[in-house]
Amino acid sequence: MVNILNQDQQETIVELMNIGVGRAAAALSKLVQDEVLLSVPKVDFVDSQTAESRFTEILPVALAGVTQAFSGFISGKAALIFPEERSLELVRIVVGHELTASEISELEQDTLAELGNILLNACLATLANILHREIRTALPEAYSGNCHNILKLLCEEDSMIMLVQVDFSLLQRELQGYLAFIIDLQTASGLYDALNEYLEKLL
Amino acid sequence: MTETTAKRILLVDDSRVARLTLQYLIKLTDEHAEITQATNGDEALAVFQPQAFDLALLDFNMPGIDGLVLAELIRQQDANIHLVLVTANIQDAIVARAKSMGLDFLGKPVDPEQLASLLKS
Amino acid sequence: MPQQEDFKNLIDRLETGLIVVNAQRQILLWNPWIARITGIAENLALDQVLDNVFNESIDSALIDALEQASQFNLSRRLSHQLHPSLLPIFQQGNKEPLHHSILVQPLVYKQQAACLLQISDVTTRVRREKHLRAAVEKIRYLAHHDTLTGLANRTLHAINLHKTCAFAAKSNQSFALFFIDLDGFKFINDRFGHDAGDYLLQITAQRLQKALIDFGSKAELVARLGGDELVALLPTISNADQVTTFANRVCKVLEEPVEWQGQKMHVGASIGIALWPHQGLTPEALMASADNAMYLAKARGKGQAMLALNTP
């Protein structure tokens, strides 16, 4: 299940995510009025059995971020994940407040949800547009918790998880974020077909 | 339409899929184009010869030297080559940097019409 | 259809604005909440284009969100902090802008592709957070300042001294620490009362701050440790002579009489000076050196400044 995609298909995903994240960064860059430095996205596929140990390995203990459900040619949940203590850094850079983690306000939660919304929509819409498929996104929700809680929130058993890691930094501030796309196994064939169709044209 | 000689194009991108996509789009406009591919800056410089290419399409974010540095190194050897930065990083700051160095800019996903007009110019 | 009537009853009672528009942004649903807020009745709003109803003054982010929802089926959350005025709507009564956030979702309505806008009033939240923020700032100020003189307190001084030491170590830029004790302050309290003593401290604090600003330092680098003990940081200095000359001038400034209810009060000041790095590399070492130097200055006859003797 972990190697459900061949190398070409996986590379296509990386390139499409690269484009999606580029769009997201352009949107973010306008909000923070500065250049956003981006890493090349790193894409990994894990099954739900190994996902938790992978999450524990690569993610910090306390997490916070934004999740958003999507449906269409693929269905599942997308998440923007930050280490909890950095989660509002983005909001603070954008709105210029300096409250500490214990002073997280409702309005800031709302803002974080919107920022996640902008990033996740950009990635998902790019994926759908380039593959000539349709995708529908739901409203984003802000959340916080540990690896285990978040995984439970994101996926049911038998999910294929596409973990996309993107590091971005703003100004002199370090802000590392992760994007995760959890795809329902029942719809994984939709992704498979779309990628093949795209590749057939090229090869 | 006047017949022109086949364009000689250098294509530099670390992603195979990105190179395939660009190659596909180029062939849509100009099926006779001669395309040479390289996966990073060092490879590109190894195959590069002055006057050997009409056009170079350079990715921005690559392992090793980035597309803008590569453009500068190519320009030093060949003042006439048409240089285009092709990148998913469509932030205003990057576009501005490319323009200030005299490069054309193509954002990913590449718009076939925009590419076609660049190939014809 | 009784069921439909039930749903309509529910929607009519919602304390949230609901608007449904089609792809051309014509209004298909306009609930009583939004009718009340805008003063535009449902029958006047229906079939009109949203942009016209709001006189073309809709935030471009909302237009983008509506386009993305109808073209690409993307849902969007528009937060108040990022978009302070999405729609030109006002509070009832005082006509102040109504703080709001909007959720935009694609949906099918009356058999056509449409967008749902949910508008929520966040005015109370904005007000509450403004108070909270002001309270937090006040607490922070109180935790770091002396209420009598407005000078930095011991805690803030410790932070500033620590930062200055760290910066000095990085940039190799020497700086000076003054330890200031008033001469004859106890006498003022005994003779004129505590109110007079407090007033004298306030005036002394202002004079000290002004002298430091004139030297090129900052007002917030003067602190009151307690009683009549004051400290000051001079982050950019050239040499020991320059600093000692300046400190002696400060002694003179602080000796100027202070008027209190028609009487002149006189105090003096003794200053101990410690320079980084020669009289201490760490905050603790510098404080000890400056304190010692201040006692030496007092022993020598008060009203003067004295450079710490020790070298590391």
Structure description:
The complex is a heterotrimer of chains A (203), B (121) and C (312). With 203 residues, chain A is of the alpha+beta class. In chain A, 45% of the residues lie in helices and 30% in strands. In chain A, strands 1, 2, 3, 4, 5, 6, 7 and 8 form an 8-stranded antiparallel sheet that branches. The longest helix of chain A is centred in the N-terminal third of the chain and has 26 residues. The mean pLDDT of chain A is 80. By secondary structure, chain C is α+β, with helices and mostly antiparallel strands. In chain C, the strands form 3 sheets. Chain C has a 5-stranded antiparallel sheet with strand order 2-1-5-4-3. The longest helix of chain C has 22 residues. Chains in contact: A-B, A-C. The interface between A and C is medium-sized, with 31 and 23 residues.
Brief sketch in words of this structure:
The complex is a heterotrimer of chains A (203), B (121) and C (312). By secondary structure, chain A is α+β, with helices and mostly antiparallel strands. Chain A has helices spanning 7-32, 48-58, 89-95, 106-130, 147-154, 188-202, and strands spanning 36-38, 42-47, 62-72, 76-83, 135-137, 141-146, 159-170, 173-184.
Per-chain topology:
The complex is a heterotrimer of chains A (203), B (121) and C (312).
Chain A: H1 7-32, E1 36-38, E2 42-47, H2 48-58, E3 62-72, E4 76-83, H3 89-95, H4 106-130, E5 135-137, E6 141-146, H5 147-154, E7 159-170, E8 173-184, H6 188-202
Antiparallel strand pairs in A: 1-7, 2-7, 3-4, 3-5, 3-6, 4-8, 7-8
Helix pairs in contact in A: 1-4, 1-6
Chain B: E1 8-12, H1 16-29, E2 34-38, H2 41-47, E3 55-59, H3 67-77, E4 82-87, H4 92-100, E5 104-107, H5 112-120
Parallel strand pairs in B: 1-2, 1-3, 3-4, 4-5
Chain C: H1 2-12, E1 17-22, E2 27-30, H2 32-38, H3 42-45, H4 50-53, H5 60-72, E3 76-78, E4 100-109, E5 112-121, H6 123-144, H7 154-171, E6 175-183, H8 185-192, H9 194-215, E7 222-226, E8 229-234, H10 240-255, E9 258-260, E10 263-265, E11 268-276, H11 283-299, E12 305-307
Helix pairs in contact in C: 8-9, 9-10
